[in-house]
Automatic annotation (TrEMBL):
Pfam families hit by this protein: Glyoxalase
Annotated organism of origin: Nonomuraea helvata
Protein name: VOC family protein
Ranges where the VOC domain occurs: 4-128
Region of interest (Disordered), residue spans: 124-147
Membrane-traversing stretches: none
Keyword Metal-binding set for record: yes
Source taxon at top rank: Bacteria
Keyword annotations of the record: Metal-binding
Length: 147
């Protein structure tokens, strides 16, 4: 038996705001949605494949101190793609951690940008190489730990 991640479902507080964020930052396409009160959701795809579902079923901000999702990571082919995401994040005023592209750890070639969605859900977009010329935010902990 072999497992791989299918789509990811996130609870959000404002479906319209989250749809705008994820379509703009990631280029996802809204493939289906419900506008029915109490049952609002959206299916986001990339190249026809379901990647993310958004469910308007929560209130408040993402609680990092509670059990559950730590962060959601997306990998892209190269650092140029990470730079494009970073540019959009800065344009829309998203919360960035580590102030831009950094390696995953001291001496690593892989790295990316670490940020939050409108509800404070922690996200990462990274590439397998190209970030090694930058200093890591912490020399004794992985960057994706959001320490």
């Amino acid at each position: 038996m072999s497992f791989q991640t299918g789509h990811i479902g996130l609870n959000v507080t404002d479906l319209d705001k989250s749809k705008e964020f994820y379509t703009r930052v990631f280029g996802f396409t809204v493939a289906g949605e419900s506008h029915e009160d109490g049952r609002r959701y959206a299916f986001l795809t990339q190249d026809g494949t379901l990647v993310l579902t958004l469910w308007q079923q929560s209130e408040g901000r993402f609680a990092t101190a509670r059990p559950g999702l730590h962060h959601l990571s997306f990998q892209v082919a190269n650092l140029e793609a990470v730079r494009r995401v970073e540019t959009v994040l800065r344009e829309i005023g998203a919360t960035l951690h580590h102030d831009g592209i950094v390696p995953h750890r001291e001496g690593a070639s892989s790295g990316g940008v670490f940020f939050e969605d409108p509800d404070g859900i922690r996200l990462e977009v990274s590439s397998p190489d190209g970030a090694g010329d930058r200093p890591a935010p912490a020399s004794d902990a992985p960057t994706c730990g959001f320490f």
